[in-house]
Amino acid sequence: MSDVVEKTLTALPSLLSLDSQPGSAKLSSSSKLGNLIRGITELTSKHEEEKLIQRELLLIKEQVSSPNTTMRQMKELMVRAIYCEMLGYGVSFSYIHAIKLAQQGNVLEKRVGYLAVSLFLNEGHELLLLLVNTVLKDLQSTNLIEVCMALTVVSQMFPKDMIPAILPLVEEKLNHPKEIIRRKAVLALYKFYLIAPNQVQHIHNKFRKALCDKDPGVMSASLHIYLQLIQENPEGYKDLAPSFVTILKQVVAGKLPMDFNYHSVPAPWLQIHLLRILSLLGKSDQSTSEIMYEILDESLRRAEMNHNITYAILYECVKCVYTIHPKSDLLEKAAKCIGNFVLSPKINLKYLGLKALTYVVQQDPKLALQHQMTIIECLDHPDLIIKRETLELLFRITNEQNVTVIVEKMLDFLQINKDDHTTIDLVGKVAELAEKYAPDNEWFIETMNTVFSVGGDLLQPDIPNSFLKLLSEGFDSVEEDKKLRLFAVNSYVSLLEGGPSKLPQRFLQVICWVLGEFSHLREDLEPDVVLRMLAKLLDMKSSSSETKCWVLMAMTKLCSGGAALALVQDVSETYSSSLDTMLRQRAQELQILSQDSKLQAKVLPRSASMEPVEVDSSLSFLDGFVSEALAAGAAPYKPPHQRQEELSRSKALNMEPYGLSLPIGMSSCSVTDRQSPTLLSISSGLSGDSADFSHKGSSAALKLDGVKRLWGRDGYLAKKEAAEEAPQVEAASPVRSPSQRGDTDGSVSQTPTPECDQEKQQLASSLFVGLATQSSVCLMGKSEPTSQRFRRKPKASGGSEPMSNPLASPSDGADNVLPQNLLDSSDLDVSSPEQTHGLPQDPDTPNGSCTAEEESADPMAEPSAHEDLDRSRDSCLSSHLPAELSALSHSEITSLCSNQSLDVSACHVQREDSVVLVVFVSNRSDFCLQQMRLQVQSEELEVSCASDCPSEELKSHSVAVCQYLLTVQRPSVHFDLSATVSWQLPAGSPQTAPFSYKLPLTGFIRALRLSTEEYGAMWLAYSHDTKLNLTLMDDDQDPLAATLHVLKRKLQLHVVEIIGVEAIVACCLQQDQPCLMHCRVHAGMLAVWLRSPVPDLPDCLLYHCQRALQEP
Amino acid sequence: MFIFMLLFSRQGKLRLQKWYVPLSDKEKKKITRELVQTVLARKPKMCSFLEWRDLKVVYKRYASLYFCCAIEDQDNELITLEIIHRYVELLDKYFGSVCELDIIFNFEKAYFILDEFLLGGEAQETSKKNVLKAIEQADLLQETKRSILKSII
């Protein structure tokens, strides 16, 4: 083994990082990792390994926390810690040291530090907050490598709440001269977009700039963002389609540098990305699709080489051709392509061919016919993955004529399949097909029996749920219903007689319900017989207490006869002392109802199972009880979130803001999705792929309306979810009829004899029957209700409509607020002069704008004239205020900029619901100013033009008034507006002058009138908070009231209530962004606690409170 | 987007793991254990793509190492195979005919290359030259630093 180490050492002289120390240290410390690895490989048992690693970890732990450990040693320790972690041992003690290493080490040590951080922590980890400063520092570093490292770590993980802190720095990097930095910055912004889309809303125009970057790497990085944006809102980016087509054309024609070639195919990654974007843009949009036909044709033609990479492009092309608005000759070519895939001897291509077929068979069922023999072959393929994909394809082409054969194939597969996830999925599909196309009652019930016994307790609860619903609600004909129910009863009686011990719990529950409800339909069957059968289930060891509940409920329905009263009494007595409360209740019910047949008939009326039970959901009958309890001094009920809140408040550390940043989407999306009952729903959770998700999830929602009480019991679903990890139930299906099994054995034979071929032909004809007549093809989710045999009643079938996707909606909303004018501009020019809507930094704008104070000291201005103007300005200009604003209070009119030809002043007016900036431009010259334009913008405010200057011409010594509506985008203590005015003298070149205006947050604050109750509810709902002690006003009588009075007068706060030394105060920022304040007099100070749903608002407001109280 | 990437040996020993979605350690361990088992049980002539749980998994074996990636539903399987291949090419170029031992003893280097190639689960730079240039620059820094140090000493 030592020669192994030696080999590595000689082959890699620059091993590890111990190089900065010369000589012997290098060897000894490099062999530390080497020794560890060698030590592990020499061990024979897992136990020994564990011992060795624990020893190693103790050593590392001791060294990392020692103050004498240098950063260089720390780096080596981290590498070892990473290694131990990879082996599956916890190294959480080293996390903080990894952060320290990234913070304090030199470039090389930092690199390992960052790597360790990115491997150890994930984006929800609270320690990550400690990295923010390091990242900030490195982003500002002059060393490119450090900037790269910071961007790399940011693109992998960053605390969502801290994005605003580094966003400006990352944005800045988009203009960096080095393309690697620009590229990483684009990917970092992509990451930000994924975790917090609203944080990067305002830089969508920069994405466009990245798309136009001269470096292909940066451009292709920006495609990640566009793919995501377009997935969420294809309508908003239609104007980019021609640009994407052009890029693709250039790529396909090989215009990119040779570096981007991969096996002599030009930039395949880029091609595939573009094809995916195009297919999203062209989906059900003829005009957009038309511009891509040419390049798609070209791509299909060019990809000829026999290499995986060309197949990858072809596959994406085919998908695109079938997604966009159809064009016949392209479809033909794509179909041929699919054929090549399916017929390929390479198994990977065959698999993709099947996948493509599955995808297109919805549009073109005849394509499946062409390849029917290949499909039949794949059905017997030794690789289960291929087999499984073939079944998926068959599932899509099922109709009434071939349903029995296809379901049989699926059930065969289920017998050999060992993967729980596949079982659940396939069982659900079988149930779906059986419900839709069952040829007769017998087949339906038997198939469902198999579904229940194979699916066992892994089964998604909606399958038994909808099955029972179907039985109880019935169909159009009463006669048919009766037959089906009777058949079910017969089938279940024989199952119970045959030995129920092997049946899964879920199936037993179904049986119990059906027997309880419908066994009376069979006239020769005495209730006593059924009762005895059911009682046997109670005695089985394997029966869960839940199943026992079902048994007892079924007994309750059947016990009215009276003959088996002794048995019933016996049972109810046994279970009325059970420890399980549910069971005890059922036993009590059974006892009481069995003795009172009138009551029983009233509570459980026969054959009325479909009548909805009226539920008093407000529990009004308990009102008396509650008020009595309250009167007796009981604590009032608090909803869970309130309790949680109070609990967390009582803790010393308030960890609340971090708690909220956890990815909530993940857990919520997986629970109801039939396709992903395991915890592994990450893909759907993160991608936000709305179409796919809603489609899959549509059938999984629990349909509780109209179902009897016993089905909708609380806690049932939760229990089933928890049971998902239970070992798989024996796959053998005891309930399939022998004849069916015989068929299977006969039809599929392994040896390829002529007979076999003939059988295959037969199989083919039975599988693909009905495909030629297109109308009867079942397209998933699109099938016509009339073609289903077991048609559910309308209200039930409504449940299979695609639901609105909860994940997609918020982001849709976010897209709507994008500045629309940006998206409408047809060219990619980022800096067209019209776009002033909140876009920061127009390249034309000079940065060095001067403030009003500086301006007054401007040597260029004529001092005397200036002073004169100052005195008269206010009265003179205020007469120019528009009529609707003149009645309102306005701030002092300040001069912002003046020169020989014009003079700019401004003030802001507070309206009830908004703030208006009024800019006065007075022409001081004797000439008429032409092409006069104003541009106003701000980082934190959205500036929209309320009324622009009346004309571009300004007559001599006249005043133009422009109004701008200001909306806060991000709270800040002060808002800076930067603006330029441009004009032209009759005989002169255009001139511009910059100016700026500053207004405080208080201008946007309005009183919020609330009741104390409303205040209480809102207080608990908000997460951003700040606390501070303020000085009280000097007032002998009531310092609190005096202080509040000042705040009320200066900041327009609304005092909700004053109770003793405490007061609650409310205000809001622009009507819809409340901020609540809680004040308490404590030790001569005013302890203030502010809360708001808007980040930063409490901090900014607090600043102004402080100012208001300090100023006289 | 990539969901995760695992490198493991024929004996099922994990050699590299990179997760692009936040998962708890317990989940990671469970997935790793089960997926490694599933992949190792497959025969050489079988399909490189798996539908495993609700993930799409693409794997490929190079000598004694399995490279295994989980991708999102709409991602292209074949291009993922080629991404794996490109990564192997990069390792090969950097280490000079790479073998499993290179990766075992220099796993942090393998991570650096991976981060330069795939960032946040997306292919960042597909040009082989550029990836290696970036890595070499960072490595070079180490060389120059060392020489400066040496000259000081």
UniProtKB/TrEMBL annotation, chain A:
Keywords: Golgi apparatus, Membrane, Protein transport, Transport. Pfam families: Adaptin_N, AP4E_app_platf. This is AP-4 complex subunit epsilon. Residues 822-832 have a biased composition (Low complexity). Subunit of novel type of clathrin- or non-clathrin-associated protein coat involved in targeting proteins from the trans-Golgi network (TGN) to the endosomal-lysosomal system. Residues 736-753 have a biased composition (Polar residues). Adaptor protein complex 4 (AP-4) is a heterotetramer composed of two large adaptins, a medium adaptin and a small adaptin. Residues 864-874 have a biased composition (Basic and acidic residues). It is found in: Endomembrane system. It is a peripheral membrane protein. Gene3D superfamilies: Leucine-rich Repeat Variant (1.25.10.10). Transmembrane segments: none annotated. Residues 1006-1110 form the AP-4 complex subunit epsilon-1 C-terminal domain. InterPro entries: Adaptor_Complx_Large_Subunit, AP4_complex_esu, AP4E1_C, ARM-like, ARM-type_fold, Clathrin/coatomer_adapt-like_N. GO terms for biological process: intracellular protein transport; vesicle-mediated transport. Residues 721-762, 780-875 are annotated as: Disordered. Its main location: membrane.
From TrEMBL, chain B:
The keyword Protein transport applies. SUPFAM superfamilies: SNARE-like. GO terms for molecular function: clathrin adaptor activity. Keywords: Coated pit, Cytoplasmic vesicle, Golgi apparatus, Membrane, Protein transport, Transport. GO terms for cellular component: AP-1 adaptor complex; clathrin-coated pit. It is a peripheral membrane protein. InterPro entries: AP1_sigma, AP_complex_ssu, AP_mu_sigma_su, Clathrin_sm-chain_CS, Longin-like_dom_sf. One of its GO terms (biological process) is intracellular protein transport. PANTHER family: ADAPTOR COMPLEXES SMALL SUBUNIT FAMILY. Subunit of clathrin-associated adaptor protein complex 1 that plays a role in protein sorting in the late-Golgi/trans-Golgi network (TGN) and/or endosomes. The AP complexes mediate both the recruitment of clathrin to membranes and the recognition of sorting signals within the cytosolic tails of transmembrane cargo molecules. Belongs to the adaptor complexes small subunit family. Adaptor protein complex 1 (AP-1) is a heterotetramer composed of two large adaptins (gamma-type subunit AP1G1 and beta-type subunit AP1B1), a medium adaptin (mu-type subunit AP1M1 or AP1M2) and a small adaptin (sigma-type subunit AP1S1 or AP1S2 or AP1S3). Binds to MUC1. This is AP complex subunit sigma. It comes from Fundulus heteroclitus.
